[in-house]
Design brief:
By secondary structure, the protein is mainly β. The chain has no helices and eleven strands. The strands form two sheets. Strands 2, 4, 5, 6, 9, 10 and 11 form a seven-stranded mixed sheet that branches. It has a four-stranded antiparallel sheet with strand order 1-3-8-7, with no helix packed on it. It is globular, with a radius of gyration of 13 Å.
């Protein structure tokens, strides 16, 4: 299983970035996928997720209306379009496979992360 994020960088407040998560080693469209971000010394923060078919998406209140998650199952790739970026969006962004068991959501396989800095 491999997940590789890209597209991070330095951007000014109000700017945009598009993150990609290229996957391999598993059947991509068997899984819902999620984006999680984290700053050093802080707990991970769930950002967004998307169903296996792309029809159901969910967002944290902090990014709702500014971020859009999507996926291309033919290309085994997950995306996160981030608009109107704020300084508080600065973090390392990870993509992960999502599973649900007993009413709880778990993130199992993670990428290495991509740094997003808004300054």
């Amino acid at each position: 299983v491999q997940l590789v994020e890209s597209g991070g960088g330095l951007v000014q407040p109000g700017g945009s970035l598009r993150l990609s998560c290229a996957t391999s080693g598993f059947t991509f469209d068997d899984y819902a996928m999620g984006w999680i971000r984290q700053n050093p010394g802080k707990a991970p923060e769930w950002v967004s997720d998307i169903s296996w078919d792309g029809y159901i998406t969910n967002y944290a209140d902090s990014v709702k209306g500014r971020f859009t998650v999507s996926r291309d199952n033919a290309e085994n790739t997950l995306y996160l379009q981030m608009n109107s970026l704020k300084t508080e969006d600065t973090a390392v962004y990870y993509c992960a496979t999502e599973s649900t068991y007993g009413g709880s959501v778990y993130y199992n396989d993670w990428g290495q992360g991509t740094q997003v800095t808004v300054s």
